[in-house]
Amino acid sequence: MSKTERVEATLVYVEDLDLERTQLSRFLGDHFSRVLPAASAQEAYALIEAHGADLVLCDVRMPQEDGLSLAKRIRARYPELPVVMLSAHNETEYLAEALRIGVRDFLFKPVELAHLLAVLNRILEESMLNKQYALLRLHNLEPQNLDEMVRLNRYFKPLADAAPIMAWVADAQGSAIFLNRSWQAFVGREAQALLDRGWLEDIHPEDRHAFDEAYTQALKQRLPFEAEYRLRRNDGTYRWVYDHGVPRFEEGRFEGMVGACIDITEVRWAREAHEAYARLQASQARYRALFETMLNGFALHELVFDDEGRPVDYRFLEVNPAFETMTGLRADRIVGHLVSEVLPDLEPTWLERYAHVALGGGRMVFEEYSRELDKHFFISAFSPAHGLFAVLMEDISERKRIQGALEEQTVELESLNRELMERVEREVKTRQESERAMLQQSRISMMGEMLSAIAHHWRQPLSAIALYIQGVREAFIYGELDRKTLDRAVNQSMALIQGMSKTIDELRGFLSQKEQSHACCALEEVKQVAQLLQPQLDEQRIALVGRCFGQPEKPLSDCVCAPNSRGWVQAYPAEFHQAIFNLLANARDAIMLRARRAPKGYRAQIAVGFLIRGDREEIWIEDNGGGFEEGALEHLFEPFFSTKERGQGVGVVTGVGLGLYLAKVIIEEQMGGTLTAEPIKGGARFKIVLPLTQAP
């Protein structure tokens, strides 16, 4: 499409980020006759009222009033004006709320411009069909029968029969007195058979009662109505249709209803697929870090059926590194392949158990030996969707061999005692290694969350770079690519890339390890952790404030050590960072859980305080996330204890109840301090007390 072949339509585009709004508005201006950019929901609503609009393209997350709130206002005032949402986030709850409001489509950034243009053109075409339907609303019709209606409205029947939508007219009692040719062709029946109540016979039996209630209520109240139901097509299949009816009056007297239907089967399929995809995307984002770093093997499979619908095989869809290590099967050689190709002699009991799980939607835990791999496995299998099953596995071959050896041993008491002592020593060593493994696992989880924070921080610059690149392509296509345009795009992209590179340097410094502990400023170390968490806190609208050495409360990033504060402590910085990170993440998670049911006006806040008392420094972290449940305080620092439901935490640490336990181990065993917790009004306080040391 050239710039002269623009669609005659007014599009209001709402985006609070100046760079992205400018770039995308320029692109949209090449394809639509008028584009009205707005930096806020308030500005967009004013533009709609002042100039009108054919379509609204709106970002979801904006300061003050967000996109969903704007969509509600538009639907209330202009119910026929279509709204399309853009979001850089894959939260399922946003998508579900948008569909409930009536948003026409929901796209995720960065969006391919060609796809965006196709979606907008499709919705405008649907809107034009709705406007054609509006021509069918009758205001001066007094039909006693079909012949009289045609005589009094000589233009209505030809117009209605020519319309590409299914139109109908009913009298004051709700009986059909006219259905156009599109309706007759769709159901494959003559008009005479459809009149009176005959047209209702083609509605699916399961939908007929709900439609009849909505239709009858609209007749009684003389109000418009809308409904979605399945209508039998001429080939015997049922198709989803959207039916919209409005009352018609003559000199204030109710004369019946007029309405129209459109086939929305593909739209419903697309919407359901979009919802399922959004749920899958959210699940993948939530568990990707765990998937890559977990110690247990994980594999996702799909069943394969024969022509009679019986499960006969299964295919590898995805495996994690631990699975490769346990089985010796490389992902690049098995993903996409059938198990019969990878392990042709695998015992049939594996398929039988997995089919039971995948088709029944339940969970199964069992131990099994694989002759092909010559290993024993502890298996936990579950089904995320019909026909799919996921497997968590642990290699217990060594344990099985030990058990077999112990059963066969018949040595004398002295030999048995010696063996028991050796086992005790091994168990102690295993316990020590387990604690070190938990610390390492916690650190890996923290790295994963830091990478998640960076990924979120990078989303906007990546979106901007994508717009620059596509802008250069558009300029090249239209012959507008000159040196000035190219240099501007390159310079602005390089500036964004340099900013992203700086973030990597900050993360490298944050995670750097030192072999020996040394004196460090506690305030600066805490600020370093908070700096990497800040983008996530800003996204969740959680304020992070500091109360430092008796100074007035201010943003934590603005706090500095007083000259005489003597706030130096002896620490391994990486481990100290990990403990502070766990405490801040715990406060953040508590607030996020409370925010779902918080009262109006709730202001989420985390406060970090510092105070010198004698030869000790106190550091406390407070949140207003609702505090602990009764009886939780005495177990708070125990391993694997969590006040959150499974899956509500972040990553490996907070999700299974190790975060606070590891923080206490680091503070008390490595730094010689104490870590305690206490409830406060509306939340909780965690207090660290550390011995002071000399400044370096």
Strand elements, count: 23
Terminal Cα separation, in Å?
Answer: 68 Å
Q: Helical proportion? A: 40-55%
- Rg estimate, integer Å: 33 Å
Structural class: alpha+beta
- Morphology: globular
Lateral strand order in the biggest sheet: 18-17-20-21-23-22
**Mean of residue pLDDT values:** 80
| Contiguous helical run count | 22
Low-confidence stretches: 132-152, 646-656
Binned strand content? 15-25%
Largest sheet: 6 strands, mixed
Overview of this protein structure:
The protein has 22 helices and 23 strands. Mean pLDDT is 80; it is low at 132-152 and 646-656. The strands form 5 sheets. The protein has a 6-stranded mixed beta sheet with strand order 18-17-20-21-23-22. By secondary structure, the protein is of the alpha+beta class. The chain is globular, with a radius of gyration of 33 Å.
Relevant terms:
696 residues; alpha+beta; 6-stranded mixed sheet; 22 helices; globular
SSE order and pairing:
Layout: E1 7-14, H1 18-29, E2 32-38, H2 41-51, E3 55-59, H3 67-77, E4 83-87, H4 92-101, E5 105-108, H5 113-134, H6 146-152, H7 156-162, E6 166-170, E7 176-179, H8 181-187, H9 191-194, H10 205-221, E8 225-232, E9 238-250, E10 253-263, H11 265-293, E11 297-305, E12 311-319, H12 321-327, H13 331-334, H14 339-342, H15 348-360, E13 363-370, E14 375-382, E15 388-395, H16 397-408, H17 413-477, H18 483-511, E16 518-521, H19 522-539, E17 543-548, E18 554-555, E19 568-571, H20 573-595, E20 605-613, E21 616-623, H21 651-656, H22 659-670, E22 674-680, E23 683-691
Parallel strand pairs: 1-2, 1-3, 3-4, 4-5, 17-20
Antiparallel strand pairs: 6-7, 6-10, 8-9, 9-10, 11-12, 11-15, 13-14, 14-15, 16-19, 17-18, 20-21, 21-23, 22-23
Helix pairs in contact: 1-17, 3-4, 4-11, 17-18, 17-19, 19-20, 20-22
